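Retro notes
What went well: the complex prediction finally ran end to end.
Inputs used:
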Amino acid sequence: MLIAIVGSAALVLAWWIVTGPAALVAPLYLPPPAEVLATFGRMAREPYLGSTLWAHVYASLSIVLLGWLLAGAVGLPLGVAMAWWPRLRWIVFPLFQLVRPVPPLAWIPLAIIWLGIGDGARVSVVFIAALVPWLMNSMQAVYSVDALLVSAARTLGASNRQILVRVVGRTALPTLVAGARIALGNAWTTLIAAELLAASAGLGYVALNASRTLETGVLLVAMGVIGLLGVLMSAAMRVATRVLAPWSTKGGASA
Amino acid sequence: MPALAWGAGTLAALLAVWLVATSVTGLVPARVLPSPVAIVQRAVALVAAPFSGATLEGHALASLTRWAIGVACAIVVGIPFGILLAWLPPVRVAVGPVFELLRFIPPFAWVPIAVLWFGASTTTQALVVFIAAFPACVINAQLGVSQVDPILQRAAQVLGAGSLTTLRRVVVPVAAPSAFTGVRIAVSNGWMALVGAELIVGKQGLGFLISQGQNNDSVATIFVGIIAIGVLGAAIDVMLQRLQARLLPWTPALAQAR
């Protein structure tokens, strides 16, 4: 822990030295830490590009969560159904394999042409990015349930509901939660790119504008907040895993 | 085999619906969704004559070059770095948190600052690819080395193996499959990031081709770009899977399927 703090402090110190006293890097390319901190304070109070930092955070977060939840609402039942009915799997899976190698970002121009530059385009691209892990892990989750355990529970007199909660739920939940976590990570990454391309608010939009107007301080604040929100979302999902499925070992498949 | 039949049937049905909706009945206007025939024609036209500065192959080659530079740098730096993290705990404790923190900034968030630093150049694109590919190399190399059973290492030493022999015969065979899986993930992350970077800034490349299609309201061009990106991405992954099976046949089946 101590060395970790020292490591992070060393990074900030190195940043301060090359920008401040040594003046190795022009502030245009990398402003000193104090200036970035001051910019952060200013953006938190005064509007930049029409709204304060918090409003931009809200704009980004609301779209990411909406796209992620929609993907879950479609991907979770569809994944379970695909594991249950082979025919559905045979129909949907080839389509999926066809679309999967295409990066979700590549759909952005198409989404913009079809849905315009509004929230619809961004939500749909986030949806596409989050759908794959939701669906894949739901399918995997059902597969991972050992048929022998289900039979054993039934032999011992468990009702259908008990089997669902105590056997299927127990085995499937860790994989499901892992899918949700990966989906959220993908959604966040994709949203930032989408905001760089088409948005009128949001952190990616702030970053792109700051780069065009050469406001490097603002750009670094936006990047820092993007990274911080990524850390927070990942931590929240880890807490959710611990609460929902404390018996999960390693969080299933990663990608 | 029913799986294959159902799959082929679905795809054929989808293609038929697409054809009927666009070319036969004309229910869907071409500027929303062009017919498959129009997309093939557009692809042929793009191969034959340059569009936005290069032919389709030219754009693909530009993308592949940047991607290869970025991924190669990520592998060359990332795998030794991962091994170092696994071998020297103090390094891991000191550098780990910084690495974790930076990892949470999506690669695309680096695009604006990379543009500021290097302009809309190949360096910018390669840097974004590098940032996207680097963590997978580091994490999986580290994982691979930490999977090496210390008992095996000691056994080798007891049996008279020098440290170089131990490294070559014990550590590398255990760690290599995991590191290779890391490379595969890095390769696909890099490809994905490159497309994004090219969409945002660039003068050439498949991502740029798509964004030009958007600017010219040519959905057919966008589709050609999307298909080219998907096909190249899938082809690269299949090639690496084959390579993994050939070079490291002892890779566990689960890791191979990833």
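What we learned: Chain A touches chain B through 58 residues (CB under 8 Å).
What to try next: split runs per interface for comparison.
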